[in-house]
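Handout, page 2. Input:
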Amino acid sequence: MPHQKSWAEPWKIKMVEHLRMTTQEEREAAIKEAGYNTFLLKSDDVYIDLLTDSGTNAMSDRQWAGLMMGDESYAGSRNFYHLEKTVQDYYSYKYFIPTHQGRGAEHMLSQILIKDGDYIPGNMYFTTTRLHQELAGGTFVDVIIDEAHDTESEHPFKGNVDLKKLENLIDKVGADKIPYVCIATAVNMAGGQPISLGNLKALRELTQKHGIPIVHDMTRVAENAWFIKMREEGYLRKSVKDIVYEICSLTDHATMSAKKDPLVNIGGFMATNDEDVYRNAQNMVVVYEGLHTYGGMAGRDMEALAIGITESVQDDHMRSRIGQTLYLGNKLADAGIPIVKPIGSHGVFIDAKKFLPHLTQDVFPAQTLAAEIYVQNGIRTMERGIISAGRNKETGDHNRPNLELVRVTLPRRVYTQAHMDVVVESIIDVFERRESIKGLQFTYEPEYLRFFQARFEPIS
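Output:
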């Protein structure tokens, strides 16, 4: 893929937050105290924080102004109605339920739609999504195309569904055992890889034939839309806003972690076109989240979210957003660092198997590499491999994904190109001493979502 020409951010800096620089000795002590898990590091010990793009974005002056317009009424806040209309206008869904963040929406939708013994096909798993599906009695089935599991493949839409895999599952278990197909846009675990509208339309035709709805994990739908604009024939002259609306219109239900695309620090929602599902969710939200007109969010946060949705679909914003990711990814690739290709949306994903070929997956190369990148220069990244994949609920053995990745995730509107240059130099320094790096072993392993809280120690 040819390198993109120079780009510049469509914003200027109005306020700064000072960062703390640490010594290598301080970082070695910090990572040991954190059990070699970057999630357990204190933020004060981190220089450049690329752990996640979830809730770490910089809000605009318009969003900050919106906070001052918060209506904190317990019921019927005007911010709720503004947000509801924004979701309908920009995302097409008829009904809307606010939640404290995306996993609240995942929980409700899974409990409403899944029965014990069901199968839920999807274009690669996501950690919290799959857990909610399993807790509701379902079994996740991966139906993403094979290219998504190959870091070297340059397929432009590695988030696509393999329709033959899905048809085989329908033939095997029956459509009545498939409550929905779960589609993520800009598939996180594949490296931020998009699904094409052509594939989504073909999927829609197949699912309608069998009476199976589509659930849309729309956390990064605008980023996916940008790749459609750039890579799919017939969409170059269409706006991100129009492409986002078209994507959503091909699905029936949606969950949104608003901490990503919509540029806020907290919040989410569930959306649907099915009135019965909506009424069930209205009943559930008051039990688990809050009243149906705030769902765990303050009025001011709903206002900032409504404004953030409008900013997230602006072409200039998305050109800058994806441009920074491409800048970082191309610099790393040019230096010989093995990364997922093509470069995805919200971060650059390092292939830890190729980076540390002397480490087997049983000693957690991606977890090890994330810890080493932190020690090198205070840069926090995260593991997306065997630790994130968890254990098989029947055998107790590790799930062993083909992809063993370190995610270098970029918050929106936060860091400059100079920060990206420092990141590249630091990762190159680790690469040059890679043969001396040893793996890790567990000292503590939680039952659920172990990557958040597990602790490790270096193997002898």
